[in-house]
């Protein structure tokens, strides 16, 4: 595989010049612009009426967390007083490294237990609910393709995702598939979803042979096998080639456009700004800001959180920052 860094840059004596081809993530995103679907406009409209302040209640809350704390030894990784997630919109959870995003995500999806706190989905308490049960209730998260899953074919991965209890009779059922009515329906459904992600021609390939971007698409495709009302994604863009980022973002927007609720954790601010309808910012375990993407990046608490923890973070679009903030960022830059 060619080294992308050398492919993207031309070095002449003392200068390094960016070459326009192949496209960077930023260019790929700028080419698409923000979605202008009816659902995107509706989301923007309904959220415009919500005050951008931490813990604010939403007009149609699907997921709610209250007093959720998770400690590791003496360190509090998550300390969220109150958070509501609006139904039918794309919410991004951002924050510097170590802010507690993944830990919070794991708590919300039933993969970890908080030391204290309550949280609910569709008004039902989730305390003590397993991830499998959550999926039956309509909330699903994506999984990284583990080594074991890489050795299965794309189709086997899809069928497995549709099973109630993936751990149980995983290999037995795959080795001796019983062509039951359910399996026939699941196979048809899998093919439909795979073709939407342009993975249908790969159905008999080993998942491990897919490219990084195709793996991410398969992770999303797997999650859709359970017909979720809410889908949770942890860094869906991580490690994906810029050329595929656009298509991934397009798929995420399409989920929202079909009425699904999306919550995703992401480091790439450009991606966040392009597809999210609402942004929640974490730092040191707490939520420090929430609001629409255009304004939340200018919030002083957000700038401080990133400056304090992660000086080289690109907040997405310099033109969104006000001159005072830019001057401060530049001053920080010079100090380094
Ligand atoms: N299993 C664990 N045991 C001990 N400490 C942990 C554990 N998981 C996370 N932590 C700590 O909790 C804090 C929050 O980590 P977390 O992974 O949730 O951050 P994050 O916001 O997802 O960071 P990143 O952006 O780097 O993915 C960190 O200080 C981390 O070291
Ligand atoms: Mg993380």
Molecular structure report:
The chain is α/β, with parallel strands linked by helices. The protein has a domain of 171 residues: P-loop containing nucleotide triphosphate hydrolases (Rossmann fold, 3-Layer(aba) Sandwich), CATH 3.40.50.300. The strands form three sheets. Strands 8-9-10-5-11-12 form a six-stranded mixed sheet, with helices on both faces. The chain has a four-stranded antiparallel sheet with strand order 4-3-6-7, with helices on one face. A hairpin with a 2-residue loop joins strand 3 and strand 4. Helix 2 packs parallel to helix 11, helix 7 crosses helix 9 and helix 7 runs parallel beside helix 10. Magnesium ion binds next to helix 4.
Fold blueprint:
Layout: H1 4-8, E1 9-12, E2 15-18, H2 25-32, H3 38-48, E3 61-72, E4 75-86, E5 90-94, H4 101-108, E6 116-121, E7 124-125, H5 131-137, E8 139-141, H6 147-150, H7 154-162, H8 170-175, H9 181-196, H10 212-224, E9 230-234, H11 242-257, E10 261-265, H12 269-275, E11 278-283, E12 286-291, H13 293-296, H14 300-309, H15 323-335
Parallel strand pairs: 5-10, 5-11, 8-9, 9-10
Antiparallel strand pairs: 1-2, 3-4, 3-6, 6-7, 11-12
Helix pairs in contact: 2-11, 7-9, 7-10
This protein binds adenosine-5'-triphosphate and magnesium ion (MG).
């Amino acid at each position: 595989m060619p080294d992308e860094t050398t492919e993207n840059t031309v070095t002449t004596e003392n200068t390094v010049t960016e070459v326009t081809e192949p496209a960077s993530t930023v260019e790929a995103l700028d080419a698409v612009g923000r979605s202008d679907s009816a659902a995107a406009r509706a989301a923007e409209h309904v959220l415009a009426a919500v005050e951008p302040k931490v813990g604010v209640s939403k007009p149609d809350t699907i997921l709610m967390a209250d007093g959720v704390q998770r400690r590791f030894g003496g360190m509090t990784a998550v300390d969220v007083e109150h958070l509501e997630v609006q139904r039918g919109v794309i919410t991004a959870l951002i924050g510097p490294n170590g802010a507690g995003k993944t830990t919070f995500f794991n708590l919300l999806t039933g993969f970890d237990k908080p030391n204290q706190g309550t949280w609910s989905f569709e008004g039902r308490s989730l305390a003590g609910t397993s991830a499998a049960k959550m999926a039956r209730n309509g909330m699903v998260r994506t999984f990284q393709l583990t080594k074991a899953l890489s050795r299965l074919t794309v189709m086997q991965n899809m069928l497995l995702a549709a099973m109630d209890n993936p751990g149980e009779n995983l290999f037995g059922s795959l080795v001796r598939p019983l062509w039951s009515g359910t399996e026939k329906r699941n196979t048809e459904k899998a093919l439909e979803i795979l073709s939407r992600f342009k993975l249908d021609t790969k159905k008999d390939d080993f998942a491990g042979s897919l490219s990084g971007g195709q793996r991410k698409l398969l992770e999303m495709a797997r999650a859709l096998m359970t017909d979720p009302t809410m889908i949770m994604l942890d860094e869906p863009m991580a490690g994906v080639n810029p050329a595929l980022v656009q298509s991934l973002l397009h798929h995420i927007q399409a989920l929202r456009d079909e009425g699904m609720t999306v919550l995703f954790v992401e480091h790439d601010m450009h991606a966040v700004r392009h597809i999210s309808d609402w942004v929640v910012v974490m730092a040191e375990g707490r939520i420090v800001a929430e609001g629409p993407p255009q304004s939340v990046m200018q919030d002083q608490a957000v700038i401080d959180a990133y400056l304090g923890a992660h000086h080289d973070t690109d907040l997405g679009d310099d033109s969104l920052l006000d001159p005072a903030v830019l001057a401060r960022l530049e001053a920080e830059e010079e100090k380094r």
